């Protein structure tokens, strides 16, 4: 596919978390069209597993969804912050846990049709509990659920956050593949 | 978690695909804060499997990601459109295929931290090929890949669209679970 050529760009909003711009682009067929682009600094999300193979989930009210959602710990990159430092910070702030090992296992665009956000996905193991220190505007409850319960929770709609589904199923599928080759071949 | 109470809301942008509003909300602790909310009409995404267990993927340039992405067929609900009609329309427009069976298998919020978008996920089987009819501003290439290749493609970053990872791994995990109980119990 050929890239679209940006011929004009107008910033229409500058906010606290996001900016919004409208790009005029020339398509491959020569026509012009507009693309509304939400500019986002990027984020991290963390699949954190304890020794009993339980995963940490956080429950918080989401104004955009108008309800509480159950998600993996996650948060937005601060200016100049390294993604792994952000993952360590968000895990600590939201759940109180620190991890002996924090490894990036993937990255993805949650909404590439209109938003620049890229989420780096981390796997955290070797968890140690301390006090949680949520940000001033966050009210967060942490729960632990067996990783093996995740498929049922997703299929029942109890987990309906896209990054959490993508992150948790990535880890599960890796496990399944390993189990599968170990047990079935 | 208690809901946040919206005490003021200002629409700062009305666009073609999205609107943007800034809500002032009262938190549980009584403090006021602002939430930037991208209003989105909602969307559908389709995991389409042929008789050989190949999945249809579409490749298109994404201005927000500044590159081509490989995704499952998907698109935004038109005004008053039923989600299943949207799934049928987008599958046809983007790939040319129609499906004998189109079943909703889940739904999720791709970016609930700031966007109202909810994506309904469909499984399409019984595929029949016709001409694709992409929208005027879309340039789309359709490819077929074995469903069994998806985990490798995700882990290599060849698929890095969140809805596609969530949708494809949901279908794969369901398969794995079935295979697992069939072959290993």
Describe the 3D structure.
The structure is a homodimer of 185-residue chains. By secondary structure, chain A is of the alpha+beta class. Chain A folds into 2 domains: 35 residues, no CATH class; 142 residues, Nucleoside Triphosphate Pyrophosphohydrolase, CATH 3.90.79.10. Chain A contains 3 helices and 10 strands. Chain A starts with a strand and ends with a helix. The interface between A and B is large, with 81 and 81 residues.
Which tags fit this structure?
globular; disordered C terminus; three-stranded antiparallel β-sheet; alpha+beta; homodimer; 185 residues; Nucleoside Triphosphate Pyrophosphohydrolase; 23% helix
Give the helix/strand layout.
2 copies of one chain form a homodimer.
Chain A: E1 5-14, E2 19-26, E3 32-39, E4 43-48, E5 54-62, E6 67-71, E7 74-76, H1 83-95, E8 97-108, E9 119-129, E10 141-146, H2 150-155, H3 162-184
Q: Give the strand content of chain A.
A: 35-45%
CATH architecture of the largest domain in chain A: Alpha-Beta Complex
Mean pLDDT of chain A: 91
Q: What is the C-alpha radius of gyration of chain A, as a whole number of Å?
A: 19 Å
Oligomeric form: homodimer
Tell me the CATH topology of the largest domain in chain A: Nucleoside Triphosphate Pyrophosphohydrolase
**Major beta-sheet overview of chain A:** 4 strands, mixed
* Number of domain units of chain A: 2
Largest interface: A-B, 81 and 81 residues
Low-confidence stretches of chain A: 179-185
CATH superfamily of the largest domain in chain A: Nucleoside Triphosphate Pyrophosphohydrolase
Overall form of chain A: globular
Under CATH at level 1, the class of the largest domain in chain A stands as Alpha Beta
The strand count of chain A comes to 10
Helical fraction of chain A: 10-25%
Count of helix runs of chain A:
3
Distance between the termini of chain A: 40 Å
From the helix content, strand content and strand pairing of chain A, which structural class follows? alpha+beta
Strand/helix succession of chain A? EEEEEEEHEEEHH
């Amino acid at each position: 596919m050929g890239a679209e050529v940006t011929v004009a760009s107008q910033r229409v909003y500058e906010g606290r978390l996001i900016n919004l711009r409208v790009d005029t682009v020339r398509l491959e067929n020569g026509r012009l069209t507009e693309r509304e682009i939400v500019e986002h600094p990027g984020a991290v999300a963390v699949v954190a597993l304890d020794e009993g193979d339980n995963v940490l989930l956080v429950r918080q009210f989401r104004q955009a969804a108008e309800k509480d959602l159950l998600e993996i710990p996650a948060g937005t990159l601060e200016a100049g912050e390294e993604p792994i430092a952000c993952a360590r910070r968000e895990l600590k702030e939201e759940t109180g846990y620190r991890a002996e090992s924090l490894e990036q296992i993937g990255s993805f665009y949650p909404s590439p049709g209109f938003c620049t956000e890229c989420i780096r996905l981390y796997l955290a193991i070797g968890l140690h509990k301390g006090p949680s220190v949520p940000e001033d505007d966050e009210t967060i409850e942490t729960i632990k659920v067996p990783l093996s319960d995740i498929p049922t929770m997703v299929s029942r709609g109890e987990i309906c956050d896209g990054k959490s589904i993508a992150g948790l199923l990535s880890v599960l599928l890796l496990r399944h593949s390993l189990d599968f080759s170990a047990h079935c071949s």
